[in-house]
Design a protein that fits this description.
- Helix 5 packs across helix 8 and helix 6 packs across helix 7.
- This protein is mainly alpha-helical and 187 residues long.
- It is built from ten helices and four strands; from the N terminus they run αβααβααβααβααα.
- The chain starts with a helix and ends with a helix.
- This is Guanylate cyclase activator 1g.
- It holds the Pfam family EF-hand_5.
């Protein structure tokens, strides 16, 4: 088992190194702008949903909100995507949902991201629920005090107690696979 873990870690490190080299090649200035981020991940001619999803990811990693990712922000993003633990990924997912940054999710914030995910991921699984029904189900399962908002703790606890919800809230669209696949589209 330890050998398998070591092999997996080496593979993750190799992926991170490859993407760091791409960063340095594409952004010698050390600042990665949104349009360059989209280019690196091959989203320029993709669907509007892919573009919107990538913009959301970009903004979540732009920790100093200067509309660029510096090398440290970029490496932190890669580390989370490729090697992050469940708790860190859930916190990141919450941050992505929380558009206004107030530390709580309202129905509009949740519906917005569900619509994106629905087009990228959920329709493929034939869920049988509309984005509004998915939002209602999330609030039924997670909003413990029924105040119409989801706090980080409600989000974390709710995701841990329901596998369907965990899969959805974790934004697990095979992010590391998606990053690796799209990063390799570069010439």
């Amino acid at each position: 088992m330890r050998q398998d873990q070591s092999s997996s870690d080496e593979g993750d490190v190799a992926q991170i190194q490859e993407m760091c080299l791409i960063f340095l090649r594409e952004c010698p200035s050390g600042a990665l702008h949104l349009h360059e981020f989209k280019k690196i991940f091959g989203v320029q001619s993709s669907s509007p949903e892919d573009s919107q999803f990538l913009e959301t990811i970009f903004r979540s990693f732009d920790t100093n909100q200067d509309n660029t990712l510096d090398f440290i922000e970029y490496v932190a993003a890669l580390n989370l995507i490729l090697r992050g633990n469940l708790e860190d990924r859930l916190k990141w997912s919450f941050k992505m949902y929380d558009r206004d940054g107030n530390g709580k999710l309202d129905r509009n914030e949740v519906k917005r991201l569900i619509r994106i995910l629905y087009k990228i991921k959920l329709h493929k699984n034939e869920v049988g629920l509309t984005p509004s029904q998915i939002c209602d189900r999330i609030f039924d399962l997670v909003d413990d005090n029924n105040d119409g908002e989801i706090t980080l703790s409600e989000f974390m606890e709710g995701a841990k107690k329901d596998q369907w919800l965990m899969d959805l809230l974790n934004l697990d669209v095979n992010t590391s696979g998606w990053v690796t696949q799209n990063c390799r589209k570069l010439p």
